[in-house]
Each structure stands twice: as structure tokens, then as C-alpha cells.
Amino acid sequence: MTEERTVEPLLEPREGIPPVIADAEALARAVDAFAAGTGPVAVDAERASGYRYGNRAYLVQLRRAGAGTALIDPMGCPDLSALDTALSGAEVVLHAASQDLPCLMEVGFKPREIFDTELAGRLLGYERVGLGTMVETVLGLRLEKGHSAADWSTRPLPEDWLRYAALDVEVLVELRDLLREELAGSGKLEWAREEFAAVLNTPPPVPRSDPWRRTSGIHKVRNVRALAIVRELWTMRDTIARESDLAPGRVLPDAAIVTAALEGPRTKKALTEISAFTGRSARRYMNDWLAAVNRARALPDGQLPQPSTPGDGPPPPNRWADRDPAAAKRLAAARAVVAALAEEYRMPTENLLQPDAVRRLTWEPPADITDESVTERLRSLGAREWQLSLAAHPITKALARLEGRGDS
């Protein structure tokens, strides 16, 4: 690990706070500057999660040697494909890339090669991998973190927010450089490259068939008529949230949906007596909420939702001992192997091998437990080659011992 050093506050960007780029002419100048720059490009994006519907970017920050820092407003510059083309051959440095890549791709910026400083920190065994902590631990600089949860759709953006945004990419390339040295020195650089490529190649998530089932507190709703109320209220809320570009929870909290499902109010007065419906936004749509409840109440039995829908994977592990004791033993054995390897190589278990792959392998193992069959099964479940080289054989041995076959 990097040796301890005196921590200095990082208070101002080196070249000051750059002006926000919000029109095509300014964007064209930035594209030319970054195309003429050299080396990796630090990139970050700010969203308005919890305030606006969806996870679009409301500010994109970039920094590159020879080009300085740019702050781009995607509301004024919604198409960054020209910047994407100009930087197509550059490595893009991000922190927690999986969070930012979707919103960057929405505006036409699609990196071909990345370096994820958070993921690098995990592979190197850093206990805390937030950007501020990593910058402090590795570079000896302290970032003031105070606006990450702000409403970045605000216009104009306050100066202190812009300073914070610019500082987020100020030393990201320097952080990348030192982490890359550590990865190379510990023999983990190729592992990191495989992980970065996997992040880039991860397909977008498939929309859930019943997204309303993720309503917080839905486990309290026990009968199908009440579940129908949850579904109708959730759907109405989602429609209103999308049309008004508000986060669904700001239109109506999940607690209100669940309480209405449990109490089944029949009048507007009864609905207003539910405390979670007293917010200004909730009151504004009171007629819509009552109509949704009444629709659920009027549904014929054949159109009511079922209590749960089967998933495409194994059941929760806490049910395995009852449903399939042999599978529970396989899972425990495989988890023990992964935990031991993770400790040996100093990284979280979930980074050494994906927990979902371990569960699926042990719930439905190959008919014949061999190094080849286990390796192929794990590979089909998304395990990377470096993970297979470390874990496949020890897991095979552990599973074979449970079958009474000794070493495989």
C-alpha cells in the first residue's frame, strides 16, 4: 500500500473554475482542445437522483493533460458524440464507472477503454474506496465532499457546486497512475483490465416485468386485492413522475402506497387521513390516487396479481437447507473457498468471484464435477479468466469432496 503522508486540502482547481459549456460553439472548442490533449481523460457525471425522473446526466466533467478541465451542461449540449469521436482512442478514467456509464452513453459518450479507480481500489484491498477516501489515502489530498446528493438539475449551478464538480476530476488521472503502479506491482494489472472490460461490456439491465413489486414495504401486503392496489398506485405514480420529470418518491412515497393497500380507503376523505398522503404533491393528485384504488377494487379475480413471481435463479440461500440440503452444503463449501482466496489476495469476496455465479453453480452443478465442467459453468455465468484461474480448481476440489471423491 502507499505509505502514509501529510494530508493537504484540495480547495481549488489548478486553473480555476472553468465556465460551463452550454452551447454548440463552446462545445466545439472543447472538442478541439481535448482532441489535442494527451494521455488518459478523467470523466465524471453528476445526476439528480432523488429529484428527477430517471438518471440522466446534468453535468459532465472532463480533464486531460494539455486541455485542462471542461464542465459540460448536457441540457444545452445534449449530444456529445463529437467529443466521443475525438476521444475514441483515449483511455477514460472514471470512479465507479458502472454508475456513470449509462448516463454518459445517453448523451453519446461511449468509452472504448476505461480505468475504474474504485474497482482498482477493491482489487488492491483498500478497505474504503470512495473517491474522497482514495484521493486522501493514495495522493495525500483531501477533497471536500458536500454536493454529491445535490439536485444537479438546478440552473444556474452555484459556484461552489461547480468547484466541487471540477475538483472531482482534478486529480483522477494522478490517482489512476499510482493505482496502476500498485496493480502492476501486485500482479493484478491484467485482472483489472479484465474487470474494466467486463464493466464496459455489461449489457443494459432488462426491465423488470413487474417493477411495482420493488415497492419498499410490500412484504407487509398479504392478500392479492391489496397487491392490486399497490400495482395500480405504483403505475399511476410512475406515469405522473415521468410526465412531470420528478423522482417517483417525490410524487408519492412508497409508504403511502403500502398504507393505502393495507387500509383500502373508499373515499377521498379516508385517503387524506393517511398521513403519507399529506404532502403537497400527493394532495395534488388525490383524485388520481382514489381512482387507482377503485380500479384495483373493481378488478375481477382473474386479473389480480399473484403473491409472488418465480425468479430465473435459485431461491434465497436461507431457504436452501430446507429445500435442498445437499445444495446448501455445496454453497457453504464454495463460499469457504472464495472467502479463503479473497483473504489471500486481499480483496472483497464479491470481487474475487461474483456471488450470483457461486449460487447458480452450487444450486445446479454440472452432472460430472470436473475442473473443465466447473470452469465452463462459471465462465457461462460471467466469471472472468483471472477469476477462473484462481477459483475454479479449488471449488471443484471442494465439491468433489462432498461427493466423497476426494481430490479432483
From TrEMBL:
Region (Disordered): 300-323
The organism of origin for this protein: Nonomuraea spiralis
Pfam families: DNA_pol_A_exo1, DNA_pol_A_exoN, HRDC
Annotated HRDC domain residues: 223-303
InterPro entries: 3'-5'_exonuclease_dom, Exo_C, HRDC-like_sf, HRDC_dom, HRDC_dom_sf, RNase_D-like, RNaseH-like_sf, RNaseH_sf
Protein name as it appears in the record: HRDC domain-containing protein
PANTHER family, per the entry: RIBONUCLEASE D (PTHR47649:SF1)
